[in-house]
Amino acid sequence: MSDSMNSVFDSANTFTIDGRRVPFKPGQTILHAALEAGVYIPHLCHHPELKPHGSCKLCTVTVNGRNGSACTARAMPGLEVENDTPALNDRRRVLLQMLFVEGNHFCPGCEKSGNCQLQALAYDLEMLAPHFRHAFPERPVDASHPDVWLDLNRCVMCELCVRASRDLDGKSVFMLAGRGAESKVVVNSPTGLLKDSALSIDDRAAHVCPVGAILPKRVGYAVPIGERQFDQATISHQVDYLARRTIPIKAVEPATETEGA
Amino acid sequence: MNAPRDLPRKLRVATTSLSGCFGCHMSFLDIDERLLELAHLVEFDRSPITDIKHCGPCDIGLVEGGVCNAENVHVLHELRKNCKVLVALGACAVGGGLPAQRNNLDVAKCLTQIYRTESGEVAVPNDPELPLLLDKVYPINEIVRVDYFLPGCPPSGDTIWKFLTDLLTGRTPRIEHPLLKFD
Amino acid sequence: MTDASELPVLLDPVLQRHQSRPDRLLQILRDAQDVLGYLSDETTAWLAKALGISYAQATSTRDFYAFLYRENRGRYRILFSDNITDRMAGNQALFKQMLNYFGIAPGKVSGDGLVSVDLTSCTGMCDQGPAILVNEMAIPRMTPQRVEEVCALVSRQVPLAEWPAELFVVEDNIQRADLLLGTTHQPGEAIRAAIARGRDEMLFEMRTSNLRGRGGAGFTTGIKWEACRNAPGVRRYIVCNADEGEPGTFKDRVLLQSYPGRVFEGMVIAAFTVGAHLGLLYLRAEYRYLRPKLEAYLAEMRAQNLLGKDIGGLAGFDFDIEIHLGAGAYVCGEESALIESLEGKAGKPRIRPPFPVTCGYKNQPTVVNNVETLCKATEIAIHGGAWYEAIGTKQSTGTKILSVSGDCERPGIYEYAFGVRISQVLEDCGARNAIAVQVSGASGTCLSERELGRRIAFEDVPTAGSFMIFDAQRDMFEVARNFAHFFKHESCGFCTPCRAGTALLSEMMDKIAEGRGTQYEMNELLRIQAVMKASSHCGLGQTAGNAVADTVQKFRPSYERRLAQTDFVPAFDLDAALAKARQVTGRDDAHAHLGAEA
Known about the structure:
Chain A is an alpha+beta fold. Chain A is built from seven helices and ten strands. Chain A has two domains: 11-84, Ubiquitin-like (UB roll), CATH 3.10.20; 88-219, Alpha-Beta Plaits, CATH 3.30.70.20. In chain A, the strands form three sheets. A five-stranded mixed sheet of chain A has the order 2-1-5-3-4, covered by helices on one side. Chain A has a three-stranded antiparallel sheet with strand order 6-7-10, with no helix packed on it. Chain A has a two-stranded antiparallel ribbon with strand order 8-9. In chain A, a hairpin with a 5-residue loop joins strand 6 (141-142) and strand 7 (148-151). Chain A starts with a helix and ends in a 17-residue tail after the last helix. Chain B is α/β, with parallel strands linked by helices. In chain B, strands 2-1-3-5-7 form a five-stranded parallel sheet, with helices on both faces. A two-stranded antiparallel ribbon of chain B has the order 4-6. The chains are: A alpha+beta, B alpha/beta, C alpha/beta. At the A-C interface, helix 3 and strand 8 of A face helix 4, helix 18, helix 19 and helix 20 of C.
């Protein structure tokens, strides 16, 4: 692929999203091209540094009238994509509600609040309540690792940690096991505990979780509630961030004296 | 707030806290001087503000807290029966909240462990005045039909004000950024 | 409990049988379970180490399949098929009878570690149900007497191999034979005919025939073969999808039992046409009883030079077939999930495209065809595409085998030219009072009385073969509820709408069944189904709500008669929710209860 943007953004290589023309590079997915062009499509299991997965289904759009995941469907010249429509957003709200009731998502007690992508999507789509009957599943917390919490109550089974550990860290610490509603992330260690796994705080798998299931310890409130990623603007207004973010999703820096400077 | 000119009468509002911390009620009071404005438009029925113990026919019922015991169920049913519009106010009413963090513990084991004396004797209080605990803490919409949800722990005074303003002026309430918060 | 030190002695032969290949993990786990009865964490860890894979990978495969057990489920593991047709034939009473006999709860092993009894998804014996599996061996036509007999054999600890053969007899029940079922098979004839035509002409004949896949999706087989042949790749594979899991379908079981020559020769012809050297038959675990016969048949084919090297005397035409066993996962009927399973992994559908024809087994071009489709290829090899194309309808050529079950006098296998009306099938099988026909299984379409004039064809009512009949005494709500439970059990869990949606639908159907439903739930059912249909990753989730949506629309009174006379009822009994607190406080006063009106 050429370095020159002009040569790859051949005029033939465009498609439309809600009527807006979007250029793409051959091989890009619809979501990838959209984010680079500044067009927001809701998503949860996608990360620009990882291979497409297509499990959360929040990015479901219609492509030439047919439903498809924007994160796995390849961009093609002339495609007509519908994205920001009331019907599609209604479906996305239902998917979010499904995710909220199948786990134990208690935002007031979660240190990810404000940086959580599930919560941010819910805010943006104006999801006011989880709506369905809560499953209140029993999922133990694993606090055994010296530097990382594992709280599967908040897991949304996006497998970002599975992919990051396997494809970026080369460790395969996490794996989604089980079936159906009984699916759960398991840790590759003889005891099943994180402390006995190969996970290190420097691993990208320790920082990729879009929700509060995998969290680095001791930095939870270094950035106060109210000053976090999705507090300033809703996620749909942070397309540039979504397109260019790297893992960790947000670097946690110690508080400095330069505030207000 | 500009009330509709032809509003026939003051709307009657009931509020209650079930298994909550009264934080949502405190936040309600945080609308500050707007309370005076509100007082022109609504009158309160059963509420910690009035100390009226039972609810009569109302237009709006605001319910804080989840449902953790038998008394909560009675109160919730009373409000549902009397209010045209029932609102789940805050994280606990919407999703069970903090009290629901006990939901994967066995309530019998919880009680026997908590009321065990040093000598090992178990004496769970059994006064009929005390409401019995349910096996789980339930969001209110799992017990009765709910018309509106206002999340937040607590929802801010501004959020509550926006919600009530919409409701009282006949607009479908809309809560969005930055008023929509789950924490 | 097996001593860890014994594992090498017990399991080395298993590893050797599979050359310690990690991609054969599922087959290895199956064989290890045959030796040990179940796959403890310790066993799984030992196997993972021996195969050089991660423990998490091994557990993820083990925990995915319903027939692989982490804990001891007894030396006799008995499963009652729980399709709606088994229920209609009275399986629930028999299930309870057996549980009572052993004094155990469903899914729990008896104290002496002898036996466990549980329910399982449709085992494909719908024309001769209720059926059970004992250590995956099928026993159809259960009666109270047969339950007694099985219980006695278990109690006396008679080895399964010594049980009366009569118990395991599975009937073909071929009620109407046409082109495929009504002609005699001359071994090798179809292969020789294909070789005589040559690769290009064989492909041309396939395309001319307009044969479409019989597994449900109806993709044109010739185009699939051509795409595989033309796709860049090092090796090509032919996969026969014999994971016939769709509730109510059993025609592939009959084809494998009594027409294996056509199935295998179809695979050979496909291999010849696309240039493949290895074929894999993925046999559902429920049909495990067929395996020895199928292996013997393959051996016979090798002896006759219909498999192996230089097949049919054609130099360089080398092809062989292996049989892989599934382990209880309906989703593996989806072709990419099936390939994942063949590779030893949990059967979760891949992202498509790329499709298996370009990137399938081991990421190589792979043809995945249904059992019946492959049989059809033998007819086309012998008689040519034009001959075949003349049968059936314009878009649905040839014949279709239906698995007929439910309320009729003559359940079994019916072969028709495409285009047959539903009413004709009902007449032929002696169904008098049908109020509904569920065509193409739990994921298919529920047709009501007024639709019985419709035709079986891709252009009208497409089907993978299941044809379940319900008469006026049946409760269509319970039919839909049975299917909702089925999909909850079989959802792979990969995508949100299917994983959570099947659970919610199933829960809501139970709520209605308990008399706690209202119009609210009726609306919710349709809302959830719409999201599942539009957003799910594969056909399972997309179709999982069909039966609910169809019956809500066409048999609404069967739901309505269960609804409560109010606008909302909790999903649980409020008074019962106080029971534990009553017990620890010892209270039983009026305030310790929540009445009906509370």
